[in-house]
Automatic annotation (TrEMBL):
Pfam family, any one: PALP
Stretches assigned to the Tryptophan synthase beta chain-like PALP domain: 11-303
GO biological process entries: cysteine biosynthetic process from serine
Keyword terms of this UniProt record: Amino-acid biosynthesis, Pyridoxal phosphate, Transferase, Transit peptide
Organism of provenance: Nitrospira japonica
Pathway: Amino-acid biosynthesis
Protein name (database record): Cysteine synthase
Superkingdom of the source species: Bacteria
Cofactor: pyridoxal 5'-phosphate
Length: 336
């Protein structure tokens, strides 16, 4: 009798299922599928980036046994680096904007990371959380993960996320939609799917206040048109993970649209998700309405709603910010 096979935590990143979003599929005549990245060990799609970055650093010899990983992150990459780092014998120091949800900061500390909250600053400011992490790495000899410009990030999506989507749809995927945080998910998955079938339509769902809609639509990052409560997405520059990536369409997604979808998915389909997932699914809906029925559209369900209970699942916070939880899903069907 063969002995059972046991693998470390890192071997359980990825291979997440595709979940059919029933109501949206019925309303549009498309198959709208969400890749359940909240089922990764650290609870988000960022586990893939964390694993790819760590393995690449090990292969290049820049991360030694017992070493320390430092990263500037909105939270989820830090969680991934911490849990996978623990499994591989590394310590983590996480620099996070203090505007992120308190649940993320508490969770990072509970997982054993050293957490340094810093004031929110634009990338052009030396006090930006990414620059703080880089300086700490230089001063202390730590490994800086550099998720935004380390292309090991998009490479792991090319090696795993893209192939998984292709296989899980039996090559029938006709469209892929993703928001941009670092650009790794959109960049790597796009490269793989376009290699397999250049006709796969790729779309970017962008929150207000970010620059990717402007970049993919107008070729610049100058549009400044509002703000969003979404965390972990909303990029203002073209990162190295996005260099050379072209998409076929991009949409501005208001927070209310994303929230309307989130609450429908929770109440009717049992999916408890964060706002970035709502923005992704809203982008998939826009694509379905624009291109018509009969498509197989895949998007990313980035993480669960557990880290956002004090905000987007808090009635008092929602009321204070003018957001509603009872908008009918049908109100989104006539969006331009």
């Amino acid at each position: 009798m063969n002995a059972p096979r046991h693998f470390g935590l890192d071997r359980h990143v990825g291979k997440t299922p595709l979940i059919r979003l029933r109501r949206l599929s019925e309303l549009t005549g498309c198959e709208i599928l969400g890749k359940a990245e909240f089922m990764n060990p650290g609870g988000s799609v960022k586990d893939r980036a964390a694993l790819g970055i760590i393995e690449d650093a090990e292969a290049r010899g820049v991360l030694q046994p017992g070493g320390t990983i430092v990263e500037g992150t909105a939270g989820n990459t830090g969680i991934g680096l911490t849990v996978i780092g623990h499994a591989k014998g590394y310590q983590s120091v996480i620099v996070i904007p203090e505007t992120q949800s308190p649940e993320k900061i508490h969770l990072l500390r509970a997982l054993g990371a050293e957490v340094l909250p810093v004031p929110e600053k634009p990338y052009s400011n030396p006090g930006n959380y990414n620059h703080v992490a880089r300086r700490m790495a230089e001063e202390k000899g730590w490994f800086w993960a550099n998720q935004f410009d380390n292309t090991a990030n998009r490479l792991i999506h090319y090696r795993t996320t893209g192939p998984e989507i292709w296989e899980q749809t039996d090559g029938k995927v006709s469209a892929f939609v993703s928001a941009v945080g670092t650009g790794g998910t959109l960049g790597g998955t796009t490269l793989y799917l376009k290699e397999r079938n250049p006709k796969v339509f790729v779309g970017c769902a962008d929150p207000y206040g970010a620059a990717m809609w402007s970049w993919f639509t107008n070729g610049n990052t100058e549009t400044n048109d509002g703000d969003s409560f979404a965390e972990g997405i909303g990029q203002g520059r073209v990162t190295k993970n996005l260099e050379g990536i072209a998409v076929d369409g991009a949409w501005r997604i208001p927070d209310q649209d994303a929230l309307t979808i989130l609450y429908q998915l929770l109440r009717e389909e049992g999916l408890f998700l964060g706002l970035s997932s709502g923005i992704n699914v809203a982008g998939a809906l826009r694509l379905a309405l624009e291109r018509g029925p009969g498509q197989t559209i895949v998007t990313i369900l980035c993480d669960s709603g557990a880290k956002y209970q004090s905000r987007i699942f808090n009635p008092e916070w929602l009321t204070a910010n003018g957001l509603k939880t009872d908008m009918p899903l049908e109100t989104l069907l006539s969006k331009p």
